[in-house]
Write a structure and sequence with these properties.
By secondary structure, this protein is an all-alpha fold. The chain has a domain of about 80 residues. The chain contains 6 helices and no strands. The radius of gyration is 26 Å and the shape is flat. The termini are far apart.
């Protein structure tokens, strides 16, 4: 059987499947073509399938946690639900490091730098499509007289 190329974007949820993406594509196509009956059919199909996939996903993630200590169980549940505490930032990373008196200044600078780099790893990389090219590099010149004229026109 020939394989089918399916694109999953890095921002897609963990439970997104190629079948659900295909249903969403058909739904959007029907909406674009103003085919109301077909749109409603695919809308309902997408909603049903999404609910089934979500329940299977959460069951598979939480089922094995029944035999785990409650603290770990709650931390994983919060991560799945998106309620996990946000990264507390560079301050805690720096506090976890050894006291500055034991390190040289160069070593301290390297430790701070690595703490910053470690935090950056959690952010997704920008896709090439998100780059904005700036063609006009001129900075506009603003004179006092032009600002006064513009301010006088404001009522």
């Amino acid at each position: 059987m020939p394989s089918k190329l399916v694109k999953l974007h890095q921002n897609d949820t963990h439970w997104m499947t190629p079948y659900l993406k295909d249903l969403i594509h058909h739904r959007q196509k029907a909406l674009k073509e103003n085919n109301i009956l077909l749109f409603k059919f695919y809308r309902n199909k997408v909603n049903r399938e999404r609910k089934i996939i979500l329940s299977k996903f959460y069951k598979s993630k939480i089922e094995h946690l029944k035999h785990v200590d409650p603290k770990k169980w709650w931390s994983i549940c919060k991560k799945i639900c998106g309620m996990a505490k946000p990264n507390t930032g560079i301050v805690n990373k720096l506090l976890e490091m050894e006291s500055p008196s034991t390190n040289s200044k160069i070593q301290l600078a390297n430790d701070i730098n690595s703490a910053f780099l470690e935090l950056l790893q959690s952010y997704p990389k920008l896709s090439p499509s998100s780059k904005i090219e700036v063609t006009n590099h001129r900075i506009p010149k603003v004179s006092i007289a032009s600002v006064e004229r513009k301010l006088r026109t404001i009522k």
